[in-house]
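job 3f2a | input accepted
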Amino acid sequence: MTAQERQADSASLGEEVLAIARAFQRGERGSFDRLYERLWGPVALRASRMGLGAHEAEEIAQRTLVRVYLYAARASFDRPQQLWAWVYTIATREVYKLWRKRRPDVVAGDVLEVWASMAADASPGPPDVAEADEALADVEQCVSALDEAGRMVLLGILLGGLTFRQAAKAHGLSLGQLKHRYEKALGKVREGMRAKGHDVG
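job 3f2a | predicted structure (201 res):
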């Protein structure tokens, strides 16, 4: 399949999911089963890219879809990208809550709200395109191989959009310590990518 064909499939999938979500918002409760089927895989994939194992990623998908069911009627979507961003924001918040529960000593409570307010990708690529991207899958593996503290620092800055100062405050580190931890984690990811044959500079 060519890149153009994948993009066409992606656009079609996005419109389909948006139509199902709108049907659910109109009160067609039976449409949630179809929405669930379309969202489960992408949400679990997003959670796994944030460093969770398969079981935890599925748990996040379940929690996210419960919230979609409860709050979709209050949301408004003009475009498929808005729907995906909304769903991924919920998923990201659930991941951060899980991190906080597991390691309260690694992440300060207030950082969860900062991350959650910044962490949505407003135009996420459709899951079938993302899954076909070998480089993205390899990055996923490299990030997952980091220790939890390094992973949280890296993802907070790269995915969560935190500045170095915000991240340093959240982790109770000096700016220098935070930058050192970030560079170390990023270096390990780069080494892993090079080992997998990618040219990452």
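job 3f2a | The first helix runs from residue 3 to 25.
job 3f2a | closed
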